[in-house]
Amino acid sequence: MRRAIILVLLTLSACGVRKELEQTPGTPPPPVARGAERAETPGEMTRFETQARPNRSGEPLDRSYERGDDYFDLPPS
What predicted TM-score, i.e. pTM, was given to this entire model? Predict the structure, then answer.
């Protein structure tokens, strides 16, 4: 019985509403970036750029090799 209650509570706590981001009333708008003509919208602020999500390399590791000595692999001081 106790496990069922915990399971129900965990399930309900994981629920969330997905909706568009909007600014709460009474807060100042986000500052305009230097050099920009207008402030970005929330959708533009949360968009991932290519550097944030790089493409995966389709090239798998072909062969293994033994690593050489690393001169910068020092013990902690």
Answer: 0.34
Contacts of 38 (CB under 8 A, 6+ apart): 32
Q: 23 vs 19, 29, 34, 46, 51, CA distance in Å?
A: 12, 8, 21, 14, 27
Q: Could you report the per-residue pLDDT of 4-48, keeping only the tens digit for each?
A: 888 887 777 666 666 777 778 998 887 888 998 988 887 888 887
CA dist 44 and 32 (Å) reads: 13
Cβ proximity of 35 and 28 under 8 Å: no
